[in-house]
Design brief:
alpha+beta; 7-stranded antiparallel beta sheet; 4-stranded mixed beta sheet; binds flavin-adenine dinucleotide; binds D-malate; binds zinc ion
């Protein structure tokens, strides 16, 4: 092997797990959106924590940057090389996908220890027959890994009830940028023994350590799931419906909004029939999970909130059995892939206080039209988390565009954040100062240089240049 670093990686993991051929590397070099990526020196696939540590040591010794990568479903370019640029900039993509162990369920504690490369779907499938579930759910479940989900502090559609990944992670094992392996996987509920390293790794986007295993809280699987898709004439009515049902229904676990243009795009992409008659401008999808007759309870809460006298509600469909619930979810869950097929879209994930959502939604179309005339705006998201995803078709992806400043400024001006759940990655590092003070960013840098003194883990991600 001509390249000495690549040669030492081959010594660690064997030739079959160091990918150097361009056509094999490509799936690891380009991100899911198609907006980010570039050539890697090689892709290495360690099969154990000890191999991850040896890979980090080899790269540290040669000052070669490492890009940790799980399922490569991230939406802010944090898991792929920087590119486009001169080939051989030198990054090594460290894929965690071979870290596939799933320990037995600890039913008494309601916890499980898993390898970082296990996908969310694989864990869901392992837990379901045992009467448990993960709590967090994402449409990218078949690809997203638990390690990547912790590294991005992923949210998804059940945050309302179960919180984000931060609340799931009660222990972690990781190889830090120093090369040290830290392991704290006991998962004790009470453990006042110093800094919360696992907590620090959550949301660190691969900049402090490579997570190799996680201790996760899991939940009993509810007996019933139901969903309702409500069509409205405007965002205010969709929000009021979600708020009203949430107040009346303790088993509500999801409240998602999708604008009419996005539902139409999903229908066209997947060849689906309209879920209701007419042309609603906003839909709200409500999900309930619990031990009782969830469809009946959801319908009752919906009637009380959005009965015939409610303003702006056009129609509603309620489903209580698995296939019909799934059929309603398609109009929401398949938005990302439908936009990707029409795009690539420019994706701006923001959060604002729930009380400011209506102001954001009212202002964002004009804000976009002013600096990106001709752009088609699609908005959907997790309404009671205050987390909306603005997707723009017809604006070039990648690089800086004035529309990013305008939309992110709008969210921040309303007391919100530039990143609700997708992270900062490469896409938003130049905007971090909008929501984090110089003192906070200094503290971030101090943590980074303590845990990754050579700066080899994900340079160019999260922290401003
Ligand atoms: P990757 O994309 O591989 O990496 C993401 C980041 O984590 C990178 O910075 C990478 O360096 C770092 N990383 C990955 N693994 C490790 C590790 N083991 N140790 C340290 N750092 C690591 N996100 C949401 O929050 N909510 C959603 O509802 C949601 N829905 C989605 C739907 C679709 C269709 C798609 C394509 C994406 C969606 N996402 C969503 C985004 C994405 O799935 C999440 O960000 C997910 O957590 C990424 O996991 P991954 O394993 O693919 O990570
Ligand atoms: C979602 O909620 O579907 C995701 O966060 C993905 C996206 O924003 O496209
Ligand atoms: Zn989302």
């Amino acid at each position: 092997v001509a390249d000495a670093v690549v040669g030492s990686l081959v010594d660690v993991v064997g030739p079959g797990h160091v990918l150097t051929d361009a056509d094999v590397r490509v799936g690891y070099e380009q991100d899911w959106t198609g907006a980010f990526g570039g050539p890697a020196r090689a892709v290495v696939r360690p099969g154990s924590t000890a191999e991850v540590a040896a890979v980090v040591d080899a790269c540290r010794a040669a000052s070669v940057p490492i890009i940790p990568q799980g399922g490569n479903t991230g939406l802010v370019g944090g898991g792929v090389p920087e590119g486009p640029g001169p080939p051989g900039r030198g990054e090594i993509v460290l894929s965690t996908r071979r870290l596939q162990t799933i320990d037995p369920v600890d039913a008494a504690a309601g916890q499980i220890t898993v390898g970082a490369g296990v996908t969310l779907l694989a864990l869901q499938e392992r837990l379901a027959p045992l009467g448990f579930e993960v709590g967090v759910d994402l449409a990218s479940r078949s690809g997203a890994t638990l390690g990547g989900m912790a590294a991005t502090n992923a949210g998804g559609t059940r945050v309302l009830r179960h919180g984000t990944m931060r609340g799931r992670v009660v222990g972690a094992e990781a190889v830090l940028g120093t090369g040290a392996t830290v392991t704290h996987l006991r998962g004790l509920t009470k453990d006042t023994t110093g800094y919360d390293l696992a907590g620090l790794l959550v949301g660190s986007e691969g900049t402090l350590g490579v997570i190799t295993a996680l201790r996760l809280v899991i939940d009993p699987r509810p007996a019933q799931r139901a969903a309702a898709l409500v069509a409205t004439t405007g965002f205010d009515a969709a929000l009021a419906t979600a708020v009203g049902v949430h107040r009346r229904l303790p088993t509500l676990e999801a409240a998602e909004v999708v604008d009419g243009a996005t539902v139409e795009l999903v229908m066209a992409t997947l060849d689906l029939p309209p879920p209701v008659a007419g042309h609603p401008t906003w839909y709200v999808l409500l999900g309930a999970a619990g031990p009782g007759d969830e469809a009946e309870d959801l319908a009752r809460a919906l009637d009380a909130t959005a009965g015939p006298s409610a303003v702006g509600v056009i129609d509603a469909v309620v489903a209580g059995d698995g296939p019909r619930v799934d059929a309603l979810w398609r109009y929401r869950d398949r938005a990302t892939e439908s936009l990707a097929a029409a795009g690539p879209p420019r994706k701006l994930d923001v959060s604002v206080p729930v009380s400011a959502l209506a102001a954001f939604v009212a202002a964002v179309p004009d804000a976009v039209a002013r600096c990106a005339p001709g752009a088609v705006l699609h908005v959907f998201g997790h309404v009671l988390d205050g987390n909306l995803h603005c997707n723009l078709l017809g604006v070039p992806s990648g690089g800086g565009h004035r529309v990013d400043d305008v939309v992110l400024d709008l969210a921040v001006g309303l007391g919100g954040s530039i990143g609700g759940e997708h992270g900062i990655g490469r896409a938003k590092r130049s905007f971090l100062h909008l929501v984090r003070s110089p003192a906070e960013i200094d503290a971030f840098r101090a943590v980074k240089s303590a845990l990754d003194p050579a700066g080899i883990l994900n340079p160019g991600v999260l922290l401003p240049a």
